[in-house]
Design brief:
The protein has nine helices and seven strands. With 238 residues, it is of the alpha/beta class. InterPro entries: SAM-dependent_MTases_sf (IPR029063), UbiE/COQ5_MeTrFase (IPR004033).
Amino acid sequence: MGQLKGNDRSAFVASMFGRISRRYDLLNTLMTVGMHYIWRRNAAKLAVTHVSGDILDVASGTGDFAFDLLKHSNVEIVIGLDFSPEMLNVAISKSVKLGLDGRFIPVIGDAHLLPFSEERFASVTVGFGVRNFSDLPKALADIVRVTRRGGKVTVLEIVKPQGRLASVLFLRYFRWMTPKLGRFFAGDYEAYKYLPESVQNFMSVTQLSEILEGAGLRNLVVETKGMGSIAIISGERS
C-alpha cells in the first residue's frame, strides 16, 4: 500500500474508511487509550480562539472534531467534509443524538478540490487527515484558499517522533498492535496495517510545520503530545 499514489491511493483510502466506518471510533479509543478525545479538544480550542464565523472541518470522518468545535460558544456552524459517505453517515447519526444536526452540515467532497469560494471560512481544521492526502501540497493550498485572511488553519496529526528512543518505541507498538486490534474488532487486518505504514511514510512535526508555512500560514503554534507522536499545529492565513 505504501507505494500507491494519486487516484489509486485516494480510491484505496476511501474504500478502507468505508469498510471500517462503524468501528472507527472504537478502534481510535483502543489504540490511543482514549487520549484522542483530549488531543481533539486541545486542537479545537486553538482552532476557535479569536475566531468568529463558519468553520470547515476537512476529513471530518465520524464528526468528533466538528462536535468538539461546536461545544464552543463562538461557533455556530461547522461544515464537515469527507470523501467517505459511510463515515459521514456515522457523523450524521451522532449529530442527531447530540442535538447538533442543525449546526453540523455534512458535505461529501475531496480535500484536494474543495467546493467552496475563496476566503469562505473563519477557520479550517483537519484531524488525522493530512497523512492520507494523495497530494499534500495541493490539498493544503486549497485549504488555505478557502480560509479568510487572518483566519486559522489547524492540523491534528500523527507524526514521526523526533527522539530516537520515542520513535522506535512508538513505531514498534503501532506496527504490532494496530493490525491486531483491527483484525479482532473490525475484521479488517489490511486497513489497520495501512495506518502504521502511513505514519512510517509520513513526516516529523518540524517538516509538517515547514510545509504549512510554505502553504501560506504564519504565527504557527505547535504542540506535541503522546511522546512526540501527535502534532497540533495552528496558524493564520497571511
